[in-house]
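Appendix C: a fully annotated inverse folding record. The material below is reproduced so that readers can follow the format used throughout the book. The structure is listed first as tokens, followed by the designed sequence.
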């Protein structure tokens, strides 16, 4: 299967309101260019420097999403161009993003990562922490940040009921608070679980290997 036919398969099988982020981490420029030529414009990377290099080399109408865990000291390398940061899980990171966004005279869109998996290794806030953060005075001083929604990663398991339950829990929470905070985006679902994520309310899926093949 080619990159363009993989993309087409996914695009025709997901609803129109769901945005496909093509996760191109570790993949060469040529692979991204191939997806671009097939019409894809939204790409996700998990390392800031790799994303910055790819941004330099590729067409400027690509929307770059940072989906990985963030190191604050590297935020500056993407602040001028990043379109959406998915995985914010600390207030201090938001402060750094705000500072760098201000330097570039722009507002940076972010999603708060919520921990939904049972595994200890997954990062993220719990629901109360999200609400406390969004209502805090400290948060309201961050004028160059726009929190547009939530992101979650389900447990890595074959148990579809568990994965479904985890996605559903985040969807319920998202719908409780989305009006109050003007949210537009619920980012959940990867190659192995995006159909379940969409069934459970996802509006944005992050798909890598199902488009580009396995990573080495
Ligand atoms: C790598 C990655 C993906 C894509 O994973 P695939 O299984 O290749 O689709 C999605 N989200 C995050 C946060 C990732 O790190």
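Designed amino acids, in order:
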């Amino acid at each position: 299967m080619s990159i363009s036919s993989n993309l087409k398969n996914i695009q025709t099988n997901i609803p129109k309101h769901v945005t496909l982020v093509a996760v191109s981490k570790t993949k060469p420029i040529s692979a991204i260019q191939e997806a671009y030529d097939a019409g894809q414009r939204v790409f996700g990377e998990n390392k800031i420097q790799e994303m910055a290099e790819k941004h330099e080399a590729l067409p400027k109408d690509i929307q770059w999403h940072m989906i990985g865990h963030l190191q604050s000291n590297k935020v500056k390398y993407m602040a001028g161009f990043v379109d959406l940061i998915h995985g914010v899980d600390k207030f201090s990171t938001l402060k750094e993003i705000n500072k760098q966004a201000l330097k570039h005279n722009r507002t940076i869109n972010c999603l708060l990562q919520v921990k939904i998996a049972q595994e200890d290794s997954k990062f993220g806030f719990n629901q109360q922490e999200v609400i406390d953060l969004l209502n805090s005075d400290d948060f309201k001083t961050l004028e160059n940040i726009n929190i547009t929604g939530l992101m979650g990663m389900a447990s890595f398991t074959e148990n579809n009921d568990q994965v479904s339950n985890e996605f559903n829990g985040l969807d319920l929470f998202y719908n409780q608070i989305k009006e109050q905070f003007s949210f537009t985006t619920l980012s959940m679902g990867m190659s192995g679980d995006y159909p379940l994520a969409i069934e459970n309310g996802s509006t944005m899926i992050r798909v890598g290997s199902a488009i580009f093949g396995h990573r080495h």
